[in-house]
Specification:
Structural class: alpha/beta
Number of domains: 1
Mean pLDDT: 97
CATH architecture: 3-Layer(aba) Sandwich
Largest sheet: 12 strands, mixed
CATH superfamily: Thiolase/Chalcone synthase
CATH topology: Peroxisomal Thiolase, Chain A, domain 1
Order of helices and strands: EEHEEHHHEHHHEHEHEHEHEHEHHEEEEE
Helix content: 25-40%
Strand content: 15-25%
């Protein structure tokens, strides 16, 4: 029998509302506090608070000449990927560029550019839009610009499965490695969706929390008083390698992607299957891919959006598959919902949980929903964790689940 394929995680990078850099973001999330705040750029909208990346300087990332040629989503992607490459001890000068792939997941692409350039066209006419508008807002350009930045000439892919995009990208990257097409893949998720149109659209759907009197308590996954998610931005990137390649160059392996499962609910454009059938299929497929039983899993990083319906459906699915034994938390309580970046950021948090032996808490979990019967983690919990599952679900019924191991 062929043993399960493990992709070695040799580098990680985070640019999140909890901080720029892995240690900054991780240490803040462990505090169990939210970063949500009133957002002046969302003034006069139905929801006017968000979770933004603090102190992000586009000029410092790509320089003054390039900063106005890229959308924020592309620069967030580059910033996180640079961290991951450095963490992996790699350099574009020292790899076979044809054997390096890039897979990026994003739900929106360059939304800020699309909105601003539409306004220019409406106000000044079509002749006044930027000649760079297309490459700035096209959804594939987060990956395209990253390949240019890194000099990576292997497969260059963009996947878009809404809020499951980051997890899907890591799963697809692992499949590329398993196929033998590449030796190294830079993969992850990114979104810069804190824009007026995006926020207005989510608010119209009643998906966002309206707790503007106290934004820091607004995102409260699995809590009885949850009323919606808090929109956020960010990027999470990993360097994945075949274990042989990592071993040959003496790389530090921070964790392993050992299983990936994907499915579709085929139920509704925005609501999850109320029975959780699609989510369960993805979870069981990921476990089968890893050749693991439910008893092998000690921690689940839940999708946990803080919406009434999602949290109930996910919780009931987790209990049906795993029972009440694994520790469960959602880091969206701290950093909000980063949309297409969420699956990658949360996979990285899962790797860090295994590496450091501590499960991050669910911020704002004050009164757990009595309908949810799980081992919900409300404060950091130390332990010997070897295997974690990271759930990601998106509009259109897209489900992606990763199994991570130490």
């Amino acid at each position: 029998m062929t043993p399960p394929f493990a992709a070695a995680v040799t580098g990680i990078g985070l640019v999140t509302p909890a901080g720029i850099g892995v240690s900054e973001s991780w240490n803040y999330v462990l505090k169990g506090e939210s970063v949500a705040a009133i957002d002046p750029e969302l003034a006069d909208l139905p929801v006017d608070f968000s979770c933004r990346v603090p102190g992000f300087d586009p000029v410092a990332v790509v320089g003054p000449k390039q900063s106005w040629r890229m959308d924020r989503v592309q620069m967030l992607s580059i910033a996180a990927a640079r961290q991951a490459i450095e963490d992996a001890g790699l350099s574009a000068d020292g790899w076979d560029d044809a054997r390096v792939g890039v897979v990026v997941g994003t739900g929106l692409g360059g939304m800020a550019t699309l909105e601003s350039q539409h306004s220019v066209m409406q106000e000044k006419g079509a002749g006044k839009i930027s000649a760079l508008a297309l490459p700035m807002f096209l959804i594939n350009m987060a990956a395209g610009q990253l390949a240019i930045e890194l000099g990576a000439r292997g497969p260059n892919l963009t996947v878009s499965t809404a809020c499951a995009s980051g997890a899907t990208a890591i799963g697809v990257a692992r499949d590329l490695l398993r196929s033998g097409a590449v030796d190294v893949v830079v993969a992850g998720g990114v979104d810069a969706g804190v824009t007026p149109m995006t926020v207005a659209a989510f608010a119209k759907m009643n998906a966002l929390s309206t707790r503007r009197s106290d934004p820091r308590t607004a995102s409260r996954p699995f809590d009885a008083d949850r009323d919606g998610f808090v929109i956020a931005e960010g990027a999470g990137m990993v360097v994945l390698e075949t274990e042989d390649h990592a071993r040959a160059r003496g790389a530090r392996v921070r964790g392993r992607v050992v299983g990936y499962g994907a499915s579709a609910d085929a139920h509704h454009v925005t609501a999850p299957d109320p029975q959780g059938g699609g989510a369960e299929r993805a979870i069981r497929a990921a476990l089968a891919d890893a050749d693991m039983a439910t008893a092998d899993v000690q921690y689940i990083n839940a999708h946990g959006t803080s919406t009434r319906l999602n949290d109930l459906v996910e919780a009931s699915t987790i209990k049906r598959v795993f029972g009440t034994r694994p520790a469960v938390s959602s880091t969206k309580g701290a950093i909000g919902h980063t949309l297409g970046a969420a699956g990658a950021i949360e996979a990285i948090y899962s790797v860090l949980a295994l590496e450091h032996g501590v499960v991050p808490p669910t911020a704002n979990l004050v009164t757990p929903d009595p309908k949810i019967d799980l081992d919900l983690v409300g404060s950091p919990r130390d332990g010997a964790y070897q295997v974690a599952v990271s759930n990601s679900f998106g509009f259109g019924g897209a489900n992606a689940v990763l199994v991570l191991a130490s």
